[in-house]
Amino acid sequence: MASLNVNGRVVEIDAHPDTPLLWALREQAGLTGTKYGCGIAQCGACTVHIDGEPVRACSVTLGSLNANQKVVTIEGLSPDVSHPIQKAWLQLDVPQCGYCQSGMIMAAAALLAKKPKPTDADIDEAMTNICRCGTYNRVRAGIKLAAGI
Q1: Which of 76, 104, 137 is the last residue of a domain?
Q2: Which of 55, 74, 80, 84 could form a disulfide with 33 if both were Cys (CB 3.0 to 4.6 A apart)?
Q3: In this predicted model, what pLDDT tens digit does every residue of 98-125 receive, in sequence order?
């Protein structure tokens, strides 16, 4: 049994320590906004924040976490969709199919938390998520809109 701080509340997870955080969030905690994409930490569909850092939840095991670490999923980023990134995504209609977008939003939110006015180079470095629909130009525009650039 693992105790995790997820979106500001303690969640008890009954799973093996080798279980990926992604599956614990989706199957045990019922937070399905974090998506499974590749399972090898390449695509970024499963991006969440752990202590403010964007991480690929498919590559983090329950046993590597402790109860003091703060996990934030797309559901906890802003329950009322008031985060600047979420507002920009809606205003610019960033997603096409939308499958990768929760991970994109989480990566973009982490970027803006560190660099409120990111350059194109900062965006390129931070946004390593894969979008099969190719919405990269709209993602960049969304980040710039949220940053007020």
Answers
A1: 76
A2: 74
A3: 999 999 999 999 999 999 999 999 999 9
